[in-house]
């Protein structure tokens, strides 16, 4: 299962007390919810950065320091712009982080 169906399934599981866990936002390093994986992305629900899906490559490059952590305000603006009116969390990839 992938795409909108996977997202809605994960959202439903979360709302029903499913697989939401506390973890650290890889951008602002604040506490965030999420943690579940949808394909090659991991979901983050951060009060500072917004709700987004981070690609596995982007997460690993941030972890290794190959990519610098973006400014949280600029990242939050990117997340909001990419989400638009969609119910789905936007996927943020390494190329998105390189331009911030």
3D structure, described in words:
There is one protein chain. With 100 residues, this protein is of the alpha+beta class. The protein has one domain (3-94). It is 39% helix and 26% strand. It has four helices and five strands. The protein has helices at 3-15, 56-64, 72-83, 94-98, and strands spanning 21-24, 31-38, 41-46, 50-55, 91-92. Strands 1-2-3-4-5 form a five-stranded mixed β-sheet. A hairpin with a 6-residue loop joins strand 1 and strand 2 (31-38). It is globular. The termini are far apart. 25% of the residues are buried. Mean pLDDT is 86; it is low at 5-9 and 12-17.
Defining traits:
about 100 residues; 5 strands
Helix fraction, binned, reads 25-40%
**Biggest sheet, open or closed, and with what strands and sense?**
5 strands, mixed
Q: Give me the side-by-side strand order of the main sheet.
A: 1-2-3-4-5
Q: Spell out the helices and strands N to C.
A: HEEEEHHEH
Low-confidence stretches: 5-9, 12-17
- Over the alpha carbons, how many angstroms does the gyration radius reach? 13 Å
Instruction: Classify the secondary structure makeup into a structural class.
Output: alpha+beta
The N- and C-terminal alpha carbons lie at a distance of 31 Å
Number of helices: 4
Overall strand count: 5
Strand content: 25-35%
What is the averaged pLDDT score? 86
What is the global morphology? globular
Count of individual domains? 1
